Amino acid sequence: MLKSLLFVGLGGGIGSIFRYLTSFYIARYVPAKFPLATFTANILGCFLIGLLFGYFEKNNVVNSDMKLLFVTGFCGGYTTFSTFGYENISLFQSNNSLLAFAYIGASLIFGLLAVWLGLFLAK
To answer: Cα(68)–Cα(103) distance, rounded to whole angstroms?
Structure first.
């Protein structure tokens, strides 16, 4: 368990650093009213998790340490949106479209409500 935590922590720390760098450089060089830095991190994270899972599947990589380091750790530290995207694609691929749409809708609605509630309670 400790070894797994170390892999997740290392990957997460590196992913968080890359998230910060993505936000820093986009805000510095591409000023926009649209939250482009977050959007970019989310899309890059989704691309990366797809690339990693595709590579692991194609090459029969079953080493859980690699998945913990790169998928759970790095991608999780960079953006949890990538996991959200992957989970929904998995639901669609396993013919659970209704569940995928429910998950998407519930995540958006309850996520926004949770932010609103947190802001409201903090006042």
So the answer is: 24
Paired tokens of 51: 């690339």
Distance CA 77, CA 71 (A): 9
Torsion of CA 36, 7, 83, 64, to 10 degrees: 150
- For the stretch 35-88, pLDDT in tens is 888 889 999 999 999 899 888 988 998 889 999 999 999 999 999 888 899 899
Q: Is the pTM of this model over 0.85?
A: no
Q: Is 40 annotated as a binding residue?
A: no
* Residues sharing a CB contact under 8 Å with residue 72, sequence separation 6 or more, in sequence order: 7, 8, 11, 12
Rounded Cα gap, residues 111 and 113, in angstroms: 5
> Do 68 and 7 touch, CB atoms closer than 8 A?
yes
Check the annotation: does 77 bind a ligand: no
Length of the chain, please? 123
